[in-house]
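Quick start: read one record
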Amino acid sequence: MHRVQKLLSNYGYCSRRKAEDLIKAGRVKVNSRLISIGDQAEEDDRIYVDNKLVKKQNKIYLMFNKPVGCVTALEDKHCRTIMEYIKVKERVFPIGRLDMDTSGLLLLTNDGDFSNRIMHPRYETRKTYRVRLDKPVSSGSIKEIESGIELEDGKTSPAKVRKIENNLIEITVHEGKNRIIRRMMEHLGYKVISLSRIRIGELELGSLKSGACRELTGPEHKKIFG
């Protein structure tokens, strides 16, 4: 037996969080029974969303180089979304998000366990960002980033910093606070000119062009699950 939101995620229908929203809204049935949060089902039970049978999909794992100017969403009435670039027949969802003005590595999948392996805090998956600033970064600022900065929602975990040029650095974090890189730099008095995620765990963006996506290779998949 598994919780229904986990099954919907594993079937590639949506993320667990979205599945929970659907269940709370009374849109999910198991066989002919309307369910509630916490209800479970067997793998061979029939799950319906809005009275439509949910079918299992082949698992797919995508690496996408998100451009600036689109939002990390499946649908948005007001903005261009990442799905304008993703041309696959399977229904996929993004793992985490990048804001509109941030570019770089984004993973998409229809495998809930894969998504959870990256997103759950207990795994402390590292994410590396390349940050261009409006002025040279000081050694004092680097030390503050590496020791943790007190923000309005709490102190950041210690991060790693690599200086590339006077105003270009790489920051590696393993927490998921909203807009954490931008807020850290603003707190220290810098303006972020550009921000791009270049690495998630051991997966690197490499030479993938902006707006392009490709499937992960077998060895890349193993880098997540070991």
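The chain has a mean pLDDT of 92.
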